[in-house]
Amino acid sequence: MKPCRVMRAVILLGIGVGVAFSRGTQQARQAEPVRRDPAAWGSTHAGQPLPEYVTGDECLFCHRNDIGPSWAKDPHGQTIRRREDAPELAALIRSQPALAARANEIEFFLGGRKYLRFLKSVGYGRLALLTTRAEMAGPNQARAWYGTDPVAWDEEKFSARCAGCHTTAVDPKTRTYSAFSLDCYTCHGVVDLKHSTNPSLVLLSRSRRREALVITSICASCHIRIGTSRSTGLPYPNTFVPGDNLFKDFAVDFARAEDATLNPADRHVLRNIRDVVLSGIETPTCLSCHDVHANSSHKHRRLPRLSICTECHNAEGPLTEVKKYTVHSALCEY
Hints:
Layout: H1 3-31, H2 56-63, H3 68-71, E1 80-82, H4 87-94, E2 108-111, E3 115-121, E4 127-138, E5 141-146, E6 153-154, H5 157-166, E7 167-168, E8 179-180, H6 185-188, H7 212-223, E9 228-229, E10 250-251, H8 264-277, H9 286-289
Antiparallel strand pairs: 1-2, 2-3, 3-4, 4-5, 4-6, 7-8, 9-10
Helix pairs in contact: 7-8
């Protein structure tokens, strides 16, 4: 090869290496976490009156065939259940002698898959929580009982700790709720009545772009259990309306996403939310894996294996194998 050709080849090789290095550096920079202000976007209704919204009963007038049958069995729609709707749990009450004096007062059940709590109404939008709770061994079977000595009603705890995630539209001033369990408003917000001809007007509809930040705020409003409202001090949001930025008022220590003492379920949730709101990562979001209406997480098995998967799954092997861990929460007392 002639000297000039050799020199040209060297120059071109140098340019190629330089371009490759530049691209690699650029990609590395893009992969680096970007620290964003979680409160820098969107609006908030914190401290404002609850808005008027379409109730679930009105929604079911049109959605009675597609959503109605599944929602009645969905955990989101059963965060609280009436006693008459769960006769098998009423039988569980009778199996515990310590509850004999209070058994007839119990009107509602909270939870049930792993832990079960007992409630009664103490006025409009208010529930009292029984000190007694059951750790479940399986469907309708208790493994252990706690808080049986003494058995008493607490009229403040549910409003101060549980209402924000187990009821709909809590007024933070009175701590009263509009409906027990979660209504359509909890995720879809204030729905434009013209959505019957334009479904894209509905938040989270399939006809509307699903913004990662909006999805994350909605799910985080209940599924982050270590946050606090800056304006009320309560462990649940102050008048959060879906579509708002939850983090304008709700303070969360995202450093705990790497806290090994936090149980894997809560750590998984916190890590995904941190990646979206602090680092601007668009996928995955909660809805990438979870189909809320169908009560299914089957979709997550079709996703590529990511580092976040190792919270629950092994780094290698089939995704059907899940690590054994115990879910616990100081807020929820289990």
